[in-house]
Task: structure prediction
Amino acid sequence: MEQHIKVPLCKEDATNLQVGDYVYLTGTIYTARDAAHKRMYEALERKENLPLEMSNNIIYYMGPSPAREGRPIGSAGPTTASRMDKYAPALLDLGLIGMIGKGKRSNAVKEAIVRNSAVYFAAVGGAGALLSRSIKQSTVIAYDDLGTEAIRKLEVEDFPVIVVIDSKGHDLYETAIEEYCREE
Result:
């Protein structure tokens, strides 16, 4: 099914999404990769505030290339999500409702997705230039010293993603393999 959704994402919209849905996000999402996740995790361990509110927000695992003249951002393709698996459950428990990346997630992340009625989206790897067209504004909000791994606030319009793990724990990577094997 195809859905157009405003973000930040409300819990009701997240729970209505099903594995395999094509979704177009419009509104505000944030970027963070390995180094930013490590810093946020360490801040939580020290009982410090995070640089962004997790509740109902989506984090895109992406580090952009430099913006060309007249563009808010350069190529903006997803990075491998499993590198954030160590940190994701804690952020989901704080209210993070969605993540965008590529690749499989650990069982601990899947459990946290279900526990928090969240969702994991995939963006198409290798299509960073195309994905950047949906990004209308990019502003560094934290950890500027990390360069491309700084946390950015993105304003997106019809940003294309696919539901890979839904709030009930259904996993497209698993169901697609089962479906493929049935057809063979």
In short: Residues 34-45 form the longest helix (12 residues). The two ends are 25 Å apart (CA to CA). Helices lie at 11-16, 34-45, 88-93, 107-115, 128-132, 172-183.
